[in-house]
Amino acid sequence: MSSIGTGYDLSVQTFSPAGRVFQIEYAQKAVDNSSTVIALRGKDGVVFAAENTIASKLHEAKTTRRVATIDRHIGLAYCGFVTDGRSVANEARSYATRFRDLYGHPMPVSKLNDELSGYFHMLTLYGAARPCGCSVLLGAYDAAKGPQMYMIEPSGVSWGYYGCALGKNKQPAHAEIEKLKLSEMTCKELVKEAARIIYATHDESKDKDFELELAWVCADSNGQFEHVPEELHKEAESFAQTSMEEDSDEEDDSDEDED
């Protein structure tokens, strides 16, 4: 079977005549085919939400995570190959630990973003390596600088964001995020909206069942990255399911009016 990358996708060091590196594009495709992950930056922190697919009814609940603690004040969410995401999280922890040991204070998330994006890019330069099959979202909060959030692509390109979605449902998720006034919303409000967006973009007819993972780093968590408290998690899921039912009822009423 031939493809447009034939002859130019055997090594990450090889450019096609059009200036493309196909292995990086393949890595990005792995991200685009993965379960949805979003991050929202509000006025008092950053909220992460992940759609963790349940591949089998025999799997134990909450054993597959797409959100990881990097330092007490920094969280990371990954989208793509889970194993690559775990490896990147461990690399990020190493950067944060070395910085704290060397300078005696926590690593700024902007510095971690620079180091980690350099690590991603390094893996695109050597024939003995391959690009990371994942993208990551970094978030942090402190009282002086406020909330900060970044996204790093498999190529090593990174951007600062107010809201970002990754995965197979990123387009509809982005459309929902753009409707929110993120800079005016608290993290407690964003937790509910994040849950609503994950549920709203999940296609029950095509996608497998999933577990919703929610985490935050904000003023309410005293600047510590942690999973959202169970009570608030249940409240957010209930809000998301109610919103879906209301939207479904409105669509049914609209169809009846047309008839």
UniProtKB/TrEMBL annotation:
It is found in: Cytoplasm; Nucleus. GO terms for cellular component: cytoplasm; nucleus; proteasome core complex, alpha-subunit complex. It holds the Pfam family Proteasome_A_N. SUPFAM superfamilies: N-terminal nucleophile aminohydrolases (Ntn hydrolases). InterPro entries: Ntn_hydrolases_N, Proteasome_alpha, Proteasome_alpha-type, Proteasome_asu_N, Proteasome_sua/b. Residues 232-259 are annotated as: Disordered. Keywords: Cytoplasm, Nucleus, Proteasome. The keyword Nucleus applies. Residues 244-259 have a biased composition (Acidic residues). GO terms for biological process: ubiquitin-dependent protein catabolic process. PANTHER family: PROTEASOME SUBUNIT ALPHA/BETA. Belongs to the peptidase T1A family. The proteasome is a multicatalytic proteinase complex which is characterized by its ability to cleave peptides with Arg, Phe, Tyr, Leu, and Glu adjacent to the leaving group at neutral or slightly basic pH. The proteasome has an ATP-dependent proteolytic activity. This is Proteasome subunit alpha type.
